[in-house]
Amino acid sequence: MKNIFTITVLSFIIFTFLASDIFAIPAFARKYNMSCKTCHSPFPYLKAYGNDFAGNGFQLKDKDAPRYYVETGDDKLSLLRDFPLAVRLEGYVTYNQGNTEQSDFTTPLLFKLLTGGAITKDVAYYVYYILESGEPGKIEDAWIMFNNMFGSELDFTIGQFQVCDPLFKRELRLTRDDYYIYKVRPGNSMVDLTYDRGIMLNYGFESGTDLTLEVVNGSGIGESFLGGNFDNDKYKNVFVRISQDAGDHLRLGAMGYWGKERRELTGDRYPNNELWMLGGDATIIFDPLELNLQYVERNDDNPYFNYPDKEKIKTRGAFGELIFRPEGDESEWYGVALFNWIESDQTDLNLKQLGIHFGYLLRRNIRLVAEYSQNFTAKYGTIGLGFVTAF
């Protein structure tokens, strides 16, 4: 088995290096005719300029895209000349995934078809269709944003997005290991900090203070429920966050989430689960190192929806992510260490896990990656070698 695995890995690496002449430019780089490193370091991880670009409705404040719209003679029509489209593809060869002691071609692990951009001045959209882990495809991110409303720094977004996006964006992380505290759902709760439907308001002050308010269904982004509603109860959940830049090297943030869920048993019995989350986050940057920290405390008063007695569950968790780019934006290789910790009254949620990840850029948009993840709770390790590309 070990010999077969070794031959498989070597064959995979050789094949990927032979593909090094491939050159691809994702949709936004094509639009503005510039390198991916303008916004990413490395892709898909966003640096400050990329965050500003996304927050400005995919418009560069200092550069207009030439001939971006069709000239129709109608000033009230905004029609994109070329429909922006991009693809992200990644795959791996793994060993001992899920503690199975098996080698596996986990390829493709993920395929995304992405589109997004400015529909007109201060109005932008973003949508992607994803196939992941061999499951049927679905739309995850799908939203429209109105930015700089009323001539101010107020942005308004409506659609499907991740509740945690104002904290750390899961879709832009470099590792296969996730930010697991964002995905926790105690008992039968449908609430977490990943995908949901709702609205988001953002306001940025010149002082470096950012405020975010989200109002969401609290039901995820699955299929509709009875009556065609995407929300399965009458409640709406609220997420708030404040963050502050403290000089060039430090950003601090605090968040809160309050929500309520309802389940129908029989007759007029509707057990509820009321929950809250509080947390803090920080980013510390001293080139060539970047440290991202997140802590979340969660309390559910009835996540199993028992009636009439309730069973409370308290959960807390954190992650720390250390990113090393030896030459900053010009780095051809990088390293990441990601530690996840979760402790809960529901013991099957407990987790202590450390992932070590290395990446090498064949091109700005083609990465070779190697990752080892050690689960200290379940006492096993996983190895993965693979590629990530976008074009």
Overview of the structural elements:
The protein has 391 residues and is mostly beta strands. It has one domain (2-390): Porin, CATH 2.40.160. It contains 3 helices and 16 strands. It has helices at 2-18, 27-32, 48-55; strands at 86-95, 103-120, 123-132, 138-149, 154-162, 195-204, 209-216, 237-245, 250-262, 272-286, 289-300, 313-324, 333-344, 351-363, 366-375, 380-390. Strand 10 and strand 11 (289-300) form a beta hairpin. The chain is globular and about 65 Å long.
- How many strands, which pairing sense, and closed or not: the largest β-sheet? 16 strands, antiparallel, barrel
Query: What's the structural domain tally?
Result: 1
Low-confidence stretches: 1-25
In round numbers, the mean pLDDT is 85
Molecular shape: globular
Across the major sheet, the strand order is 1-2-3-4-5-6-7-8-9-10-11-12-13-14-15-16
Helix-and-strand structural type: mainly beta
CATH topology: Porin
Provide the CATH superfamily. Answer: Porin
The CATH architecture classification is: Beta Barrel
End-to-end Cα distance:
35 Å
Share of β-strand residues: over 45%
Number of strands: 16
User: What percent of the residues sit in helical stretches (DSSP H or I)?
Assistant: under 10%
What CATH first level would be assigned? Mainly Beta
Counting DSSP H or I runs of 4 or more residues, the number of helices is 3
Order of helices and strands: HHHEEEEEEEEEEEEEEEE
Q: Please tell me how large the radius of gyration is.
A: 22 Å
List its salient traits.
mainly beta, 47% strand, 391 residues, single chain, 8% helix, Porin, 16-stranded antiparallel barrel
